[in-house]
Amino acid sequence: MATQEIYIRNANDTEARGPFGLTQLASLAEAGQITPETLVYDATTEQWAALSTQTELLGQVFPEKKKLILKPKEFKTLNKPDEGAKPIDVNDMLAAAEGRTDETADKKDPEIAMMRAAKVGTIGALVALLAAAAGEILPSVDVITSGDIMAVAAQPLVLFGALDVFLAVMLGLGVIAMYPFVRFRAALGFGVLAFIFYTQGSPILLVYAAAGCAGLYLCTIFVSLVPVIVAAAAAVGGMGLLAWNFLSQ
To answer: What CATH number is given for 6-61 in this structure?
Structure first.
């Protein structure tokens, strides 16, 4: 259309709107107020015609929008497949995570090693306490079954045995909050046993008591696997030898 003054109306409208310029029509089209079916007055033919039939005007009112096309970018990977490599299964992944493979041996998680050491220490302390309790309680079973509270109270080792059983049960239940009490029992037990064996002139039993109590104490301290194994061996060995001596008397 040569004219820039354009009148429009819908098919059901009786009155026209306008005049509008091309810029205004484009704005109305962008706002969705006119469509290609909107009627436009053609001054040349003096008739109303659908905007879709006015090819040139339609292209100006509804200009074709350029599509944004993203050019694909080529990525080059640095990893090259090894045809000779064997498939990786779940066990291999777990072993790598725990540092049990040649490639990850120097990348072990220190927390895993500490958890293993703590588990070994707990088991060692538990077994040592049970061994000590056996040596402290079993020789006095007759006194305990008699029901004489005063006679039981006169046996200090029986009281230690009851404490050892309680601590062993707590450790077996995973109550690591009992560690301070285990350390106190180890220190107190060494003091009492050392005094008894020293006054009796029993240096061998004194060595057993020292090894057992020191090992028991250190089982709750060490967080490295090798030291805690040594401590657990000392605790179990010392307490076991003491129990054997008490039971063999």
So the answer is: 3.30.1490.40
